[in-house]
Amino acid sequence: MKINFIAPAGMIGTSGYQNHCKGITNELGKMADVKLSCGLPPNWNLQVNDLELNMITKQDDKDRINVILDLPYNYRLYTDKEINTAYFIWEGQNVPVSFIPEFKNPDIRMIFVPSEKVRQAIKATTNDMEIIKKIR
Q1: What's the whole-model pTM score?
Q2: Is the dihedral of CA 50, 64, 13, 114 positive or negative?
């Protein structure tokens, strides 16, 4: 499987978001052919491991599946592949109501979540089965 993992906020840093990004990117990189598209701070090349360096410098191609790690209102910026999915991270009891139309974006086939807690936060905000069926 060929994946284009899109994480505009990047994976270099100490935020929970960046730690999630780094963890999932490294695990995916062990299982699949991953191109990592992310924000890069100065001297980024001194802060990555060999696998991450390979994923960052790899060329993109049309055959990749997009996995988007960003806030839902940005999903539409990255739906240029035939198959687009999202990886959604959230730490609250509910997600903002403004995310609901974005979860329904027909270009996003699946929404991956890291835990049952995130799944429940989405369900606490909406019972829309079109969205619920997308959550993995």
Answers
A1: 0.90
A2: negative
According to DSSP, residue 133 is labeled T
Cα separation values, 11 from 28, 57, 63, 68, Å? 14, 15, 24, 13
pLDDT tens column, 54-81: 999 999 888 999 999 999 999 999 999 9
Q: How many residues does the chain have?
A: 136
- For 13: left if phi > 0, alpha if psi spans -120 to 50, otherwise beta; the answer is left
Q: What residues have CB less than 8 Å from 113, skipping those under 6 apart?
A: 87, 88, 89, 119, 122, 135, 136
Rounded to 10°, the helix 50-57/16-31 angle is 80
Rounded to an integer, the average pLDDT of 30-36 is 96
Task: Enumerate residues 6+ apart whose C-beta is below 8 A from 49.
Answer: 26
What are the residues whose beta carbons fall under 8 Å from the beta carbon of 116, sequence distance 6 or more?
none
CA separation for the pair 34, 65 (Å, rounded): 9
